[in-house]
Amino acid sequence: METKNVITVTEFCQHYNIPEQFILSLNEYELVELAKENNTPCIYITEIQTIEKLIRFHFELDINMEGIHAITNLLNKVERLQEDVKALNNKLMFYEQGT
Amino acid sequence: MPFIDYYKVLGVPKDADTQTIKKAYRKLARKHHPDLNPGDLEAEKKFKEINEANEVLSHPENRKKYDEYGKDWQHADAYNQAKQQQSQSQQRQYSNSSQFNEGDFSDFFESMFGGAYGGSRNQAGFRGQDYNAELQLDLKDVYTSHKRTLTVNGKNIRITIPAGIENGQVIKISGHGGPGVNNGPKGDLYITFTIHNSTKFQRDKANLYKTVDLDLYTALLGGNITVDTFDGKAKLTVKPETQNGTRVKLKGKGFPVYKKADAFGDLYITYQVKTPTNLTEKEKALFTELSKLR
């Protein structure tokens, strides 16, 4: 039997005690990708960790959807920059060892 | 165990109302929350302080106790006894508000309140806190895959360190973070590798670089030399009239490629031609004679 790694939005929201509209809004803002199973919106298991973070942004830090969208983009940039810094540090170390 | 002024931590006056405390907490949390400051240990530390202050000041019972005994916390024992009796009939729950667990509170907090409780937004099962650790290794240590036992928060974890791991690289050990909240899954452990290089090789990803001295005569006339590779020795044939700075490649003699079994980078050897010093009179005469031929 094929196992699908998804959970319905309804089940997920019941578990986390949040409105379904929140997840649908995340999807509208392209912050979370949803799957459809028998026409029911579902969440990929692999997205849960990201969604938990976004739940914290919204319900604990009081950040609205536009803010979450901006923060997510900036965090992605930070992550890329941190990777660049890491690579550049390694390059620098390479040249420092050569001197 | 120093006294912690929670009002100062949140930057609110002692007579601040619940709304002011909530507002101050959210403002500071938005600035220092670990989700918003990935990899920033200072922010994480600051957030723990803010979270702890909020745990106390946003709950009337805690705040009352703190206001009464805060500066004289040693007398909080009486409260603890009362609390213990109370907790027998009341199951403790951890706060969801910041993904932190009991171990993330100060000794001062633990002595007064015995741990984190109350204040949860809901009863959902959240993942536990992710732990971060740093492991310092030498370049020699990561030439081969090997197992190592680490102690994280008092627990021994045996991990495999794959050959070819890079300086600054982070690996995730699933399920070795903090305990989940309300039956949520455990967090993960993130290990950042700091790799020092005590060898004579320079490393750029899987390629290694090394400078080898070459005497003038071998450089001019050619010959065979033996060079050290990372895990042994290699014989090289030097072509006649080799110039200073010439670079040769030893294919597959570099560093292991991360997570690619049996794949290795290359070793680049740069020749540094050494001219002879302390020449004898006879040598000087011969070099003079040579120079006249050109």
From TrEMBL, chain A:
Keywords: Coiled coil. It comes from the Bacteria. Gene3D superfamilies: 1.10.1660.10. Residues 71-98 form a coiled coil. This is MerR HTH family regulatory protein. It holds the Pfam family MerR_2.
UniProtKB/TrEMBL annotation, chain B:
Residues 81-99 have a biased composition (Low complexity). Residues 5-70 form the J domain. GO terms for biological process: protein refolding. One of its GO terms (molecular function) is DNA binding. The keyword Chaperone applies. GO terms for cellular component: cytoplasm. This is Curved DNA-binding protein. It comes from Bizionia echini. The lineage of its organism: Bacteria, Pseudomonadati, Bacteroidota, Flavobacteriia, Flavobacteriales.
